[in-house]
Amino acid sequence: MLRRVFYISMLAATPLIVICACLPQIKQLEALPAQLFVTLPAHHPQPDLQVSSIYNAEDGWRLRIVVENFVFTDLCVSNATDLARGHAHVHLGNKKLATAYQPDIVLGHLPTGQHQVTVSLRAQDHRVLGRQEGGIFAATVTIHAL
Q1: Percent of the chain that is helix, strand, coil (3-state, to 5)
Q2: DSSP state, 31?
Q3: In sequence order, what DSSP letters do the residues of 3-24 get, joined into one string?
Q4: Which of 61, 88, 127, 141 is deepest in the core (most CB within 10 A)?
Q5: 51, 140 contact by CB (below 8 A)
Q6: Residue ranges of the chain with per-residue pLDDT less than 50
Q7: What is the pLDDT of residue 27?
Q8: What whole-number distance in Å separates Cα of residue 31 and Cα of residue 69?
């Protein structure tokens, strides 16, 4: 009987032991989830990006993405190890418009009005590049379409 009580108490305590072992990771709530983000270490050269737009009658709107400390590539891998290599996602408001594997991208003709276009850097495995101190590497440009 005493042996049975001991085994039951050990089974009941197992989740508590697992939770205590994981406390250091659980307390790091400010850390970005690794399933969605690749966090660049502070000592790693940090990407800097700027986005500009230009219009021509033939193609419509074009974006120029100027980046430092980042290389565009169309090669995708299952687990990004080179933190400074990847592509960018282009969003018009909350809608994804395109994936940019190079710094120049054609958006085409946009409806009349003001549009916010945001470009965010992604790693080769499509996770968002995040800053160690929080936030992501992104830039926004406002397009006034006539």
Answers
A1: 15, 45, 35
A2: S
A3: HHHHHHHHHHHHHHHHHHHHHH
A4: 88
A5: yes
A6: 2, 5-7, 9-29
A7: 33
A8: 23
Per-residue pLDDT tens for 48-84? Answer: 999 999 999 999 999 999 999 999 998 888 877 767 8
Burial class (CB in 10 A: 0-12, 13-18, 19+), 131: middle
What is the β-pairing status of strands 128-131 and 37-40?
Answer: parallel
Amino acid at 40: L
Query: DSSP label at 2?
Result: H
d(CA 105, CA 52): 11
**Backbone Cα Rg of the chain:** 23
Q: SS3 string of 96-110?
A: EEEEECCCEEEEECC
**Which residue do the tokens 């430092």 mark?**
68
Phi, then psi, of 40 in degrees rounded to 5:
-80, 130
What per-residue confidence (pLDDT) applies to 31? 59
* Cβ-contact 91, 40 below 8 angstroms: no
In this prediction, residue 107 carries a pLDDT of 95
